[in-house]
Predict the 3D structure of the following.
Amino acid sequence: MSLQPPRDKRVSLAEAVALVRDDAIVALGGGLSARLPMALVRELIRQGRRGLHLVGSAHSIDVDMLVAVGAVRRCEESYVGFEQDLGLAPAYRRAAEEGSIEVAESCCVSMLAQLRAAEMGLPFLPVRGVRGSDIAALHPEYATITCPFTGEVLIAVPALRPDVALLHAPSGDRYGNLHLEQPYVLDERFASASRVVIATVDELVSTEEVVASGVTIPAHLVTAVVLAPFGAHPTSCYPRYAYDHGHLREYVSAAQSGPDDFEKFLATYVCGSEESYLTAVGAERLSTLADWSRSTADWQELFR
Amino acid sequence: MSWTIDEWFVVALARTIRPRETVFHGFGSPCAQVAMHVARRTHAPEMVLIEGATYAINPDPPFIPPTSNDASLSRGAAYSMRFEEFFDAAIRGDVDRMFLSGGQIDVFGNTNVTAIGPVGRPKVKLGGGGGGCNLSATIGHLTLWTTRHRSGHTLVETCDFITDIGHRTPLGTRAELGFTGGGPQWLVTEMGVFEFRDGRARLVQIFPDVSLAEVRAATGFPLEAAGDLRAVRPPSAGELAAVRSVDPLEVRKSEFSPRELARVFEPAAGQDCAC
């Protein structure tokens, strides 16, 4: 695939997600509680996607929710959970324990090397660790290799070219120039390693404005742009909004307690549209999250 | 002045950091995270502190949030590394110390954060190891910790799954595996402090409200204790003040069971402060 020529790439959320096929290798941007592509995840659920092979570094509600609805065949992240904050990921844990998903737990360093190999058009890159760890046994595709210069035995990890990367940015222009705040996590690597790159943005701005903020991911790597205000909610997208601890707690509790509560959660928040999602979360809650910078005390209060 | 086990534990972790080291904690590690900031505010002001998911260098967060990649953890930092900048530095050997924990830890310092029981059909699927299975090969020294030693299920004879690598695995020693980092150096638990000598954990300090018999009963591998086993040195007033000001949300407590959090300590008779 060549680089993307400049064109207006704005599409609807439904049109963008239609680019994701069943059984696709899907790279999820962001990490943990920050800048997860949640509007895209919710639309994947609405469209009933199945058989996905998810790849990423450390993730939480994005992976867990897709696993909960049965959209996932294989999980290849370095971590899925809610840290000490809200604990283990309920649906991911249950599916792994029942054997209904393939757990191909990875490592941030191996994942990074695999993406870099794809970016460079190389078949593999070596890593020094992994040997002696049982993580190797989860990856029959890895191999050992002897360095022709030093004789060191290293692990070769194959190039990883996701079919599609799902990213969320606080702002971008219609051509797909995206501005991100740190941490970028693997978003830049996903953008250049993946065949198709879909980005949601909280705000569409002019090219001049995104250039002034700083272009983190350039338009020539981006396939489609979707306006999705609060598109990372309930995770954070600084400087626009902090994460929504209460909503994450509500999700974890619904996913833990069984099918009825989880169906109710889906019906309340996911099944409709992004507009109905934001209405269900509530304007007051959203503005509290957006006002995180008013004072340190207000900010700190959001984490209790 | 009195103090609680979570405060003392964090101080014990902080003391494993040497002045001027470059130190990293993984995500989801509140005790290690608080400990690094305590060290920087007490005995190691010249350390290079790298935050666990924002990769911010020497930030001064207004509080420690319960999630690791929040913007509060980049506050005051002149620079945050990119993901790849951090991992490149770590795998080429430029990071001196990392904190690692585990649902299971064996005598060689191998840790399991992947699954309890067979990984194909686990009894408990844990979250996963982040970057640990590569980082544990190349980072200078590892400080391991657990707040669940007393459960009897954490320090085990054999890990059900080795995620992060200690001094020896069934495939061989670190030298045989070609690893460039030094491996586990300390293991701090809520019962005591182990150091690794000849690649095996050995108890060298014990908290004063814990007996050696209790430690032995809670330890799944044969316990070796130092001949000069000592009590963990009480926190200084400065160390305690640092813990309390770094962590106003008390996220460190989330790692402890309620029973452990009830452990409160007073200065020994004749001491007028925790010095």
About this structure: Residues 108-120 of chain A form the longest helix (13 residues). The radius of gyration of chain A is 19 Å. Residues 47 and 192 of chain A are 26 Å apart (CA to CA). Chain A has a mean pLDDT of 97.
